[in-house]
Amino acid sequence: MAEIVLGIGTSHGPMLVTKTETWGVRVPADKANCHAWKGGTWSFDELVAARAGEGLAEQTVKAVWDERQARCQANIERLADLFEEARIDVAVVVGNDQNEIYRPALNPAFAVHYGDTITNYEFGPERLKELPPGIEASLKGYIPAGGADYPGCPDLALAIIRQAMTDEFDVAALAQMPRSETPHAWGFVYRRIMRDRPCPSVMVTINTFYPPNQPSARRCYKLGGSLLEAIRGWDSDKRVALIASGGLTHFVIDESVDRTFLDAIRNRDFEPALALGEKTFRDGTSEMKNWMPVASAMAQRGLEPHVLDYVPCYRSEAGTGNAMGFVYWR
């Protein structure tokens, strides 16, 4: 029987893989877009007015950015150390796609990759043209120079698919990558947590971002039990890590939501987080749903949660940016 010996939850956003000098590049796009916050939809100017008393402008200066980036990088290195120390044979990585390997023509709610190889190739000129402002500079944080092929783990992936179907999760099964790139949710883990020395892994994707088929937060939490059962039932002596990639609140940071979420992990009681409701888990904040199966499996497995750090990285006085979280279970 395989054994889960480590769980990891990590943010993966572009601010973590770019210099602080570039953090403000996304602000013009922030000003042009509408944003999810407090269950509603807000313009940039409305956010500035609503959050005027929070002193957010004081948190968007380079000295603060540098301090917060240093904390983030230290926590990423700590998670990478823990991964290396745990001597992991296979990792199950839960993340979301953002029009990287899927497209609106076909976007499954849940999917599991069971192929031999996970491809992570560099972008061509046409693909680069599709990127939002400021994203091209982050690509090297997710894709190594020259690209890479990573080993899958078909045996465990098929066990996860079979168990999911038994548990009435109708998952898409991918024998190969739909496109040659790896979504940044996984690219970050392979590059930073596994330090470009990835063990065999299983990609579990959740459509957190895009209507109309986003699984609910509760449904994602329940998936954790199915993943745990599949790994426990896998006829292997491998040491397994379960990794969540994404979050925390963004593109507008909401520290109250993040505190509720991290307290739920600490207390092994997710009802307060689930009670935040689906209107909370929109835009980038929806990536918290990637953490929910991992937190569920870890609570059932009985591994101790450790919140390494919480680092809100604001890039504007409207509160746009990315709240970073770093957690492990062992």
UniProtKB/TrEMBL annotation:
Residues 76-256 form the Extradiol ring-cleavage dioxygenase class III enzyme subunit B domain. Coiled coil: none annotated. It comes from the Bacteria. Pfam families: LigB. This is Protocatechuate 3,4-dioxygenase. The keyword Oxidoreductase applies. Keywords: Dioxygenase, Oxidoreductase. GO terms for molecular function: ferrous iron binding; oxidoreductase activity, acting on single donors with incorporation of molecular oxygen, incorporation of two atoms of oxygen. The keyword Cell membrane does not apply.
